[in-house]
């Protein structure tokens, strides 16, 4: 089951949860369709969070019990294309997408994670592109996205060997962006909620669009639209007001 709700703690933050406890949140064919519908329903969100249910697995990969029924190259290619399209939709979502790694992300789960813009991980998780253990390779766009994050040689080492990284090592090489103590992972003021709320309150969607690749003229036009918006002038007034009326230093004379 894939659930979509808008976070009660942060305006404009949509939370997509993959909830398949019997399969450690593995992705089946039906899950792919549910993900597509959830992404469509999240349209208009200022930030999107993708996470797994529970605290053991983000996504443990593809559901082998179901996908083992695919025995022809044609069927395998069709499955790979369908889920690659889903990951492309995640990557192309108009607003920032945060993968909240509540648990381990293995195989296809790591591919879903790198389709997001930002990865926030609990400090006790591991992540691995370990498809080689099944004598296959990443098929959902994960190899290419991994290379874009960590470089081609490191991506080949990780995906070619299937080695699992803990959260600290994944952060060190740029595969994970933020590592949070498990106790703080789901709290409103820290962890993934804090990251999502911060992005939703600011024009991060426009920044994502420019980073994704637009012309210089389009980037300047985006800036100009933000410049003339009421939100910019309200923020500017607050800054200028603080500058004109600075607070007295703590402990200073009155």
UniProtKB/TrEMBL annotation:
SUPFAM superfamilies (UniProt xref): ClpP/crotonase
Swiss-Prot/TrEMBL catalytic activity: a (3S)-3-hydroxyacyl-CoA = a (2E)-enoyl-CoA + H2O; a 4-saturated-(3S)-3-hydroxyacyl-CoA = a (3E)-enoyl-CoA + H2O
Keyword set includes Lipid metabolism: yes
Coiled-coil parts of chain: none
Transmembrane segments: none
Pfam families reported in the protein's UniProt record: ECH_1
GO annotation, biological process: fatty acid beta-oxidation
Keyword ATP-binding applies: no
Keywords assigned: Fatty acid metabolism, Lipid metabolism
Single GO molecular function: enoyl-CoA hydratase activity
Cross-referenced PANTHER family: ENOYL-COA HYDRATASE, MITOCHONDRIAL (PTHR11941:SF54), ENOYL-COA HYDRATASE-RELATED (PTHR11941)
Family membership noted in the UniProt record: Belongs to the enoyl-CoA hydratase/isomerase family.
The protein's role, per its UniProt record: Could possibly oxidize fatty acids using specific components.
Protein name listed in UniProt: Enoyl-CoA hydratase
Organism: Mycobacterium gordonae
